[in-house]
Automatic annotation (TrEMBL):
The active site is at D285 (charge relay system), H347 (charge relay system), S525 (charge relay system). GO terms for molecular function: serine-type endopeptidase activity. GO terms for biological process: proteolysis. The lineage of its organism: Bacteria, Pseudomonadati, Pseudomonadota, Alphaproteobacteria, Hyphomicrobiales. Residues 277-573 form the Peptidase S8/S53 domain. This is S8 family serine peptidase. Keywords: Hydrolase, Protease, Serine protease. The keyword Magnesium does not apply. Belongs to the peptidase S8 family. PROSITE patterns: SUBTILASE (PS51892), SUBTILASE_ASP (PS00136), SUBTILASE_HIS (PS00137), SUBTILASE_SER (PS00138). The keyword Protease applies.
Length: 593
């Protein structure tokens, strides 16, 4: 999360680790993959003893909130709706002297995006964009009421709305961010040959990534001495050998298992022949690079682009039916004064690939985790992040709830993945949208956030009813960037690109698709979609499963963590997918037969 404050945090963390004589991690960034050979000289047991996730520094800086000065989120009390609010405002307008409430009535009448108890109200007096750059006030989190940072006439409307008995809350429309840690792995991605554009010939024909990976796996050229062993293939997909998160779980590392494994290897062995029409998983993110060769095109369903501001959208228009990801690169100063230039993340494609958007056993790239899910790409994040107003509409739409001004989703999702977030406890407007999605039958999975802080201070991770996922490394220990605490439901592999605990000479990031190839990333963003994949296996066995039943099944099969591996709380522990006959889902699966 917080794309813009990741870099200083990472720098501090690296510095702190270097002081703990794990200086090879700092060298990783400086020297590329060569430092991983040094890392490989530690035994796995030695590495496991160095679990110090609690050593991650607390955030020293106050994170910024980027607030849209032109819109607010109004959440009404139970039983109220926009019409009852409008009537109340009109009554107060008649009784007031001087027409001071005219603007309030007009704002309510023009309110959009209404769905039940939620309303988006436009505010006068400011712009979101000036001269092609964002013009958002940036407000330090916890700096008090946002109305002090918006135009006086807008603040007057907010104050008047808050006085209406129908109104439960008036909240700022904030920016949220992808929960991806700034990626240090780009240096060795060149080794994989993935900086090149994808080949355009047939999907099953030989492709550069196959040859590149042959040069890496098992050769010792990169990994140095003492590899644990070349893992047996998870599938026909050559890069699946780098998908350590899918290995089975065991206390001691071996060729086909890791302490950080989740059991998908065995699961897939039993489910290779069932790749037809799995559960529908919506990915609420940056969109999808639909031209990627490894995408399972017949399992990508129509999505939607919910980004309303073109500065964010980067596609020349507002909302539309095309969720393709045109990139989210920014120039310096685009998002706020002093914001750095950033490269495109292709975050949504990466997340979708982890959840199962790729083709399995096609002898290309990476493999599938569990069942062959169908993917609904829903675009909400672009340049600078994404607004609450767009994310909340997207969440409802993904679940099949109607959203004003948008055609209904013909393929309501059973699982909704949200690898995004921002500072602060769950806003009422988010909770209302989550409640609507749950009521529609969806299971909502959210990344816990990457601020190394209590997940109760991040949203939507902190919203009631979502499955909140912290990130772990190949040892099954919480990753140092991961949020933690009592709000976490389960831990899942999000990677740690500063470690090589599986001893293959590659950083232990999570490999997935990006524009032009594949990339290791790390973050709770990468952990959440693997939990979505686990939920998909549960839902495949029992389609009517509720979100709470899914959460209980995840908790029942998770492997509890020691206080050393997870000192500040990661819920039930490391998530596991188990074949239905052996899992806590057995009775659930059985009842569906
Ligand atoms: Ca658009
Ligand atoms: Ca593949
Ligand atoms: Ca590795």
């Amino acid at each position: 999360m917080r794309r813009f404050d990741r870099r200083p945090l990472r720098d501090r963390r690296l510095h702190g680790r270097a002081l703990k004589s794990v200086g090879i991690l700092a060298a990783t960034l400086a020297a590329g993959q060569g430092s991983f050979a040094a890392k490989a000289q530690e035994s796995f047991a030695e590495a496991s003893r160095q679990i110090v996730p609690g050593a991650a520094p607390a955030l020293a800086t106050t994170p910024l909130r980027l607030v849209d000065p032109t819109r607010v989120l109004v959440t009404l009390r139970s039983g109220e709706n926009r019409e009852s609010l409008r009537i109340e405002a009109a009554r107060r307008q008649r009784e007031s002297a001087g027409g001071s409430l005219d603007a309030v009535v007009a704002a309510i009448e023009a309110g959009t995006g209404s769905s039940g108890r939620s309303l988006v109200v436009a505010l006068p007096g400011s712009a979101r964009e000036q001269n092609g750059r964002a013009a958002f006030p940036s407000v330090p989190a916890g700096a008090g009421d946002f109305v002090t940072n918006i135009a006086p006439e807008a603040a007057a409307i907010v104050t008047a709305l808050r006085q209406m008995p129908q109104v439960a809350s008036v909240e700022p429309n904030m920016m949220r961010f992808a929960n991806q840690v700034a990626n240090p792995a780009d240096g060795f991605n060149a080794l994989l040959g993935i900086d090149r554009p994808p080949p355009t010939d047939g999907i099953r024909s030989p492709s550069p990534d196959v040859g590149a990976i042959d040069a890496i796996i098992g050769s010792g050229r990169v990994g140095g001495p003492a590899n644990i062993g070349t893992p047996p293939a998870l599938s026909d997909d050559p890069l699946s050998q780098l998908q350590w998160q899918l290995l089975d779980n065991a206390p001691q590392a071996a060729a086909d298992r890791l302490p950080g494994g989740t059991g998908f290897r065995t699961y897939r062995a039993a489910h290779r022949q069932t790749d037809t029409a799995g559960p529908i998983v919506a990915i609420i993110d940056t969109g999808l690079v639909a031209s990627h060769q490894d995408l399972a095109r017949n399992r990508i369903l129509p999505g939607y682009d919910f980004i309303s501001l073109d500065l964010v959208a980067n596609d020349g228009d507002g909302r539309d039916s095309d969720p393709a990801d045109p990139g989210d690169a920014t120039t310096a100063g685009l998002c706020f004064t002093g914001s750095p230039a950033t490269a495109s993340t292709w975050h949504g494609s990466h997340v979708a690939g982890i959840a199962g958007a790729v083709e399995g056993d096609n002898r290309l790239g990476i493999g599938l985790p569990g069942v062959a899910v169908r993917i609904v790409p829903v675009r909400v994040l672009g340049r600078c992040g994404g607004f609450d107003t767009d994310i909340i509409d997207a969440l409802r739409w993904a679940a099949g709830v109607s959203v004003a001004g948008v055609p209904s989703n013909p393929n309501p999702a059973k699982v909704i993945n949200m690898s995004l977030g921002g500072p602060g406890a769950c806003p009422a407007a988010y909770q209302a949208a989550v409640d609507d999605a749950l009521a529609a039958g969806a299971v909502v999975v959210a990344a816990a956030g990457n601020s190394a802080e209590d997940a109760r201070q991040s949203s939507p991770a902190s919203c009631a009813g979502v499955i909140t996922v912290a990130a772990s490394d190949a040892r099954g220990a919480i990753s140092p960037y991961s949020n933690f605490g009592p709000r976490i439901d389960v831990l899942a592999p999000g990677g740690n690109t500063q470690r090589d605990d599986d001893r293959n000479g590659q950083p232990d990031g999570i490999l997935s698709i990006v524009s032009g190839g594949y990339e290791f990333k790390e973050g709770t963003s990468m952990a959440a979609p693997l939990v979505s994949a686990v939920v998909a296996t549960l839902v495949a066995a029992r389609p009517a499963m509720t979100a709470e039943e899914a959460r209980q099944a995840l908790v029942a099969t998770a492997l509890s963590r020691s206080s050393e591996a997870c000192p500040r709380g990661c819920g039930a522990g490391l998530v596991q997918v188990l074949p239905p006959v052996a899992s806590a889902g057995r009775s659930l699966a059985g009842s569906a037969r």
